Model the fold of this input.
Amino acid sequence: MFKKVELGNSSLVGSKDRKVLRARAVKAFSLNDSQADSLMPPKAAFSVAKLAGTRHTLYMADADPCLVVLHDGLIIPTIYALWNAPPVFPELKIHRQVLSYIMRGAHLMIPGVLNWSDSFQAGSLAVVTLVGSTKPVAIGICQNPLDDNGELKTSGRALEVLHHYGDGLCKLSPKPFPCPDLGDEHAASEEGATDKTVHSQNDNNAAIQSDGCDSCSATIEGNSETQIVTGEGVAHSNVAEPQAVAESTIEDITESVENMGMHEHSLDSKNTVGESVRFAVPLVDLTLRICFLQTIHNVTDDKLPMDISALYSQMNADGTKIVSKSAFKSLVKEANMWDDNVCTENAGALISYKNSSFKKIAKMFQAWAKEGLISMKEARGVTTVVQIHRSSEAYVKFTPFNIAKEKEKDAKKVDKIVVRRLLAFSAGQRKDLAALGLHIDNKPMGVDQFKKIVIEHISNEGSVILDHMNKATQYHQIWRGDESAPICKGPAQPVTVSVEPRGNRKHITVVKGLFNYLFNEDEDSILETLRRKFASAVSVNNGVISIQGRVPVKNELVDHFGLSQQHIKLL
Done:
């Protein structure tokens, strides 16, 4: 479900909305206060964003994904949140080998579950854990454990996997992995082992992105009939055998996950990993600047305004690829800042704003704004980049790196809106037409169809056709893609756009009649799209949309919503 995830603009969650979200989670997951605090840390800064191309909503706790509200209203916690919380959901135990199939897109089948029983309730949420570990690696919806005869099933699907370790949600966090509290009584004495696990996970996460795990997922995605048996290996499956490199990569990763909750009590001191690599602050500042220039060269104006957190996430993705380039190493050496630890494995520390002189992400972008590279806007605690100054000296002088880009999915198709004109005739009019040999039904018919009938049976003179059309009652029907709205009487009224003053030289842009054309789209999603596009407050009252400021909404209605110029009237 979350193979590839892109965040839209995010906004901070207010205290009132946060209480509502907490109450919703408590009710959905049957949590007590302690569990709710672990799942939604009280001191964390919560933000919310739409997942681009979907109707899913993601809530972030600080920089980590926390809760996801799916398009159908179902709310689920992320793997990050589950690692930091006590056990909340029923657990399905599996062997490590089974996880490799889940990570490639397969649902969990009954033969792969070690503790399968009739205690699992159909339709309820459950998590998947590895043998010897309490840390969930996947979450999904349980399937009915009983067959039609009331007997326990021994084959078929056990869990519809919604979110798993290593998918797009896990990659959203700036840090490859959180360092969860493993809750082990020996955690203090085994701090080195925990550090080793984190480093191993960093390496493996990079391996996922470079060794083609996505291609494996594409091969097996949606295959709900994967058969997995318990034991030391994985038996017969109708899934094609993955490449050896991808197989070994995933096995290494699953092993590192398994080790997160399994402590060996016979650790040698030589296996203890010391502190993570630390880079000089000027080197981190230089790297962040290079990543920033690389990223803004790839951001087109139609993607603006963009939240600074989303832009920073893209910087992280680009930076991981940049640090391995010889051209980047040359730039660092020319600045006399070279460090032998500069490599892809240490990219996370090298492009972290926390290791820079800025310390805060907002200050970092403010410095670049003062330099004249970008323009920013802050509204209700959310800072966005509204313009990239492509004529600035630093932008012009910078030559972007030639980095391999992931194949993006086709852009979302915009369904063009078509208004179909219809005509209907009264009983007297139909009687007159019948006398001319033209039999018309009492139901509304398309204008083109009526013209064709008149030309074939009465006359092809325009005045005659127009005369009959003027006698008819007009109707219209709005089509958007393959969907149509109910037939309405009268001609279609255009969407009106006006700018009204609001005192102190302030204005609002008023849009009326838009919802008549966007009949198959959720009202909240329309408002969120406008809010994200113009970085302005947007409200609706009795179908009338008000946007703060004087904004070019006409282009957005045409490009994003599919209206034609003739459907829009500027007042």
Q: What stands out?
A: Confidence is low (pLDDT under 50) at residues 177-251, 260-275, 406-411.
